[in-house]
Design a protein that fits this description.
It is built from three helices and six strands, in the order ββαβαβαββ. The longest helix is centred in the middle third of the chain and has 13 residues. It is globular.
Length: about 100
């Protein structure tokens, strides 16, 4: 807990909420969330949109991140973007083929 202006706040109350969404629901959002977690975890409450990843995709992501010594985000918070949820930032990841 952190004491600020005579009030008590948890770290999650001080973090900005960010949602990563891949236009094709691939593993890009998981990679991006893992990278941000490794470098800026204290500033962000990180979310991804839920997806059914292809067989072997998670293992491939783990191998790629291992090469740069970054752990795969173990238990990502998942939520669909809806009217009753809000985020401070939203990142849409796309391969460029989204409008096809």
């Amino acid at each position: 807990m952190i004491l600020i202006n005579m009030g008590v706040y948890s770290m999650s109350e001080l973090q900005k909420r960010i949602l990563f969404l891949c236009a094709h629901r691939s593993v890009r959002e998981l990679i991006a969330a893992s990278l941000l977690t490794a470098y800026e975890r204290e500033q962000w409450d990180i979310w991804i949109a839920p997806a059914s990843f292809q067989d072997g995709a998670i293992e491939m992501v783990r191998q790629v991140l291992d090469e740069v010594h970054i752990p795969l985000l173990a238990v990502p918070q998942m939520a669909e973007p809806t009217v009753d949820r809000s985020w401070d930032e939203g990142v849409v990841l796309c391969s460029g083929a989204a409008d096809q």
